Amino acid sequence: MQIAIKSERLFITPLASDDFEFIKVLVNTPGWIKFIGDRNIHSKEAAQQYIQKILDKEHTHYWIVRLKDHGVAIGIITLMLRNYLNDYDFGFAFLPEYGKQGFAFEAAAAVLNELEINSEYKQLLAITMQQNVSSIKLLEKLGFVFEKNMVIDNEELKMFKRG
User: Fold this and answer.
1) What is the pTM assigned to this prediction?
2) Alpha helix (H) ranges present in 41-141?
């Protein structure tokens, strides 16, 4: 499912090994560290290894979201089959300076539209921390519905379902 997707303002491409500089910045933003976790990626080599690990993982898809006008990377959309979920987990993360401008909704909606074509992705899940109000609002706007609370690795999470 690694295809390029276009929307009105964005170009969404599969994660590539040369995206290491952007990934290094994104995973060290306060929001990523608070809501996703510190990945301890502080060098080019660590970022390249992190990306390679993602690319090597079966049932894991990452897309880089870029501004169409400038090609600047601003976020990611993710889709992965986690060992504790029966369906794919849909996720997203954006640089803070691109928040509250509709980019996350636009990118997520574009990817979801493409995924709906493939019957393997008819039902999707999304998990987030209870405190991540912005992500919860975006998931609901995208048509995800709260399903249940769950505890994974001693972390209480909310699970949402779409489809």
Assistant:
1) 0.94
2) 44-56, 103-117, 133-141
